[in-house]
Amino acid sequence: MSLELESVAPDASDFLAALELEQLPTDDLTESGRLFFRFSQNGKLVGFGGIELCQGNILLRSIVVLPQARGQGIGRLITESLLEQATTFGAKDAYLLTTSAADFFEAIGFKQIQRDTVPPEILATKQASALCPSTAMFLTRPVSNQPSLLPQASSTKEIVQ
């Protein structure tokens, strides 16, 4: 199974519609330090995801698998691809917030952590400080948790396995 990855503008209508459908925050998408990607399989859109750069760490955000593509391992491929993108920026650890997908992320190597152990630069993001509810769980894992099966990004459009 392969996915095509390409950069997506934070105000792209298909991206915004997917986030709104899943009730994910859109208020801070256009601020600096955020990179978003569109993922396709065999020419068909399957999802989106992004990273927010945070002083040597990253915040994974806006990960959406479109309804017709669920249950096929697409979420894992999107997450691994985003982690691979993070290596190009020298990121050490990845963090995320979720209210509904902790089990999914734990299954791919993330661990739940308490808010008081989250680095200040992650806590200072709008996602952590204002946009996500206080009930959202923090999860983390090293960016290079295990040898990746994905090629390192060399352009804004590539095929990932």
In short:
This protein is an alpha+beta fold and 161 residues long. The chain is built from 5 helices and 8 strands, in the order βαβββαβαβααββ.
The total number of structural domains is 1
Give the uncertain stretches in residue-range form: 147-161
- Summed over residues and divided by their number, the pLDDT gives a mean of 88
- What is the first-to-last residue Cα distance? 6 Å
Q: Give, in spatial order, the strands making up the sheet with the most strands.
A: 6-7-5-4-3-2-1-8
Q: Spell out the CATH superfamily.
A: Gcn5-related N-acetyltransferase (GNAT)
CATH top-level class: Alpha Beta
Q: Which term fits the overall shape? A: globular
Q: Give the SSE string.
A: EHEEEHEHEHHEE
Specify the helix fraction band.
Answer: 10-25%
SS summary, helix count: 5
Radius of gyration: 14 Å
CATH fold assignment? Aminopeptidase
Give the DSSP E fraction (strand runs of 2 or more residues): 25-35%
User: Regarding quaternary structure, how should these chains be classified?
Assistant: single chain
Structural class: alpha+beta
For the biggest sheet, the summary is: 8 strands, mixed
Strands, total number:
8
